[in-house]
Amino acid sequence: MGKPRSQTTFEDERYATRLSGGARTVVAHGATPEESEARATRVWDARERQIAEVAHGKVDEGIEIAFEELASSWATDTAHLSSPAKFLEHPAYRQIIGLGPRVLPLVLNDLSEHRRFWFPALAAITGENPVPDDAAGNITRMREAWLAWGRTNGLI
Amino acid sequence: MRDLIERLFPRLQESLFEITSPADPSYNCVAWAAGDVGRWWWPGEAMFTYWPADVIREQSIASFVMAFEMLGYLPAVSGSHDPQFEKVAIFASVDGTPTHMARQLADGAWTSKLGSLEDIWHGDVHALSGTDYGEVVVVLERPRRA
Fold first, then answer.
1. Is the pLDDT of residue B132 over 70?
2. How many angstroms away from the CA of A138 is the closest CA of chain B?
3. What is the reported pLDDT for B62?
């Protein structure tokens, strides 16, 4: 990903720097513009590094087993529900998010195969949202956007 | 799958119901009640769901009523069958959080999409009441189109 666009503003008695590029947005705060910019850049670089480390790598077998168990538990308990808030509340869903970027290939493959509602988890893990605003709620387009994002980042 | 649905909604064991579609995660109960099989309707986080643009995105009965008022529905006195009107029922948990919607068919029976699972035909709207969906709290109606 190229250099992100940077915008720093002063709000609530502190500086806020917003970096945005592609599907990613990072916001960080500081007492000075330099501090907020430096913090935002560190978060940006960390996200890029975390995803790059996972890309093209083999997923740890333990993570794979854990993911399958957690995903199955979550799907069994919530497949008849409609509220994404209920999905997010489920302990297994939260544990999957807690596994961090290393679970991304598994989540994306499951999204491809089963079309489960992984969008909040993907956004939480990556800090990104590749879904166009007008596609929100359109599962087909949301899925396509995230799978394209996954291919671009070497995760699937 | 029928066994699973009966386990999730025990009252269906005492009521007529049929599975009427394959499982499909493309749409949910609210979308199905609204006649939309292409989107996941829910208020709340705008990144993940569809909700009518001018309706407040909060998980409240008022928000659901407003969304369906946009489709021509108004509050109904009851969910009893009136062939002149198409009715939808809003379910909510005891704390008032909406959980589910069902739509009444022309013959007076009801149809529900169960999350990302199947659509079902059910004779009694209250057959889905219970732990997960709570109870029917509001029924809305609009003149049934020919």
1. yes
2. 5
3. 97
CB A147 within 8 A of CB A135: no
In terms of residue numbers, what domain contains B23? 2-143
- On whether any CB of chain A is under 8 Å from the CB of B1, the answer is no
- DSSP, collapsed to helix, strand or coil, labels residue A142 as helix
Chain B interface includes A136 (CB < 8 A): yes
Residue in B8, B49, B116 nearest the CB of A137: B49
Residues (pLDDT < 70) of chain A are 1-2
* CB of A44 closer than 8 Å to CB of A26: yes
The domains of chain A are located at 5-54, 61-152
B90 in reach of chain A (CB within 8 A): no
Q: Which two tokens stand for residue B27?
A: 């749409």
pTM comes to 0.90
Count of structural domains within chain B? 1
Residue A67 pLDDT? 97
